[in-house]
Amino acid sequence: MIFSKNIKMADVILNNHHLLSVISRFEIKLGFGEKTVEEVCNVHGVNVDFFLEIVNTFNEPDYFPQNYLESFPLSLIIAYLKNTHNYYLNLKMPEIYALIQKLLDESDKPISKELKLISKFFIDYKIHLSQHIKREEEVVYPYILKLELFYKSNENLTANEIKELKDYAIERYVDEHENIEDSLYDLKSLIIKYLPPQENNVLCYKILGQLGHLEKDINDHSNMENRVLVPRVTLMEKMLK
């Protein structure tokens, strides 16, 4: 189903409750009443067209309107990506870690080496994800925003601005950019194949469900970076450099 601006926002959530996490990144809270998507976005100062492209991308696996996404300002896309980072680090990762800790607390003693390995694997992944995000937000995104500013300016670049452009290139980001969701697939495989039978199977299933949801979310996040940000930045670099 492809959502339009005239559908009620409540119906969007009722159709797919997983979209709650996406909507929260636009700082939209519950209590929509009978308002449409357009009405709710207007109340919260959200670009309704951009909102719909993101929501439809998450709702329909085969929906990825690359050409249309390329029409939005990079600053708008980066603001969304940074809100997504915040969701990963401050909500989703702590939530999954708490479930794993609960599994550790409820498991037979002594704790199996497989369960210890799963816990360590997740902690290491959390550190790795934090470092990945830190580099994007401190190096890559500021560079892109500055590049867009230079690109839109009608004035000639100063010597310092030219130097700033030469100090970095988006191809470095492409070379360094990892498929960080791959490790989540490995962790799911480890749990499914090697975790000894647990008393609380429901908790194990819940952990796997949360890992799968995060894996898909990060994959969509990476697609936006690789298929929208990188091509546009590459083109701007060629025009300016």
Radius of gyration: 21 Å
Order of helices and strands: HHHHHHHHHHH
Overall shape: it is flat
Q: What's the multimeric state?
A: single chain
Q: Count the beta strands.
A: 0
Biggest sheet: strands, sense, closure? none
Average pLDDT rating: 89
Classification by helices and strands: mainly alpha
Our count of helices gives: 11
Q: Helix proportion of residues, in percent?
A: over 70%
Low-confidence stretches: none
Number of folding domains? 2
First-to-last CA distance: 43 Å
Strand content: under 5%
Fill in the keyword field for this structure.
2 domains; mainly alpha; 11 helices; 241 residues; 0% strand
What is the fold's blueprint, element by element?
Elements: H1 9-15, H2 19-24, H3 37-44, H4 48-59, H5 66-69, H6 74-106, H7 113-152, H8 159-166, H9 170-176, H10 182-194, H11 201-240
Helix pairs in contact: 6-7, 6-11, 7-10, 7-11, 10-11
Protein described:
The protein has 241 residues and is mainly α. It folds into two domains: 9-63, no CATH class; 72-240, no CATH class. Helix content is 74%, strand content 0%. The protein contains eleven helices and no strands. The chain has helices spanning 9-15, 19-24, 37-44, 48-59, 66-69, 74-106, 113-152, 159-166, 170-176, 182-194, 201-240. Helix 7 (113-152) packs antiparallel against helix 10. It is flat. The N and C termini lie far apart (43 Å). The mean pLDDT is 89.
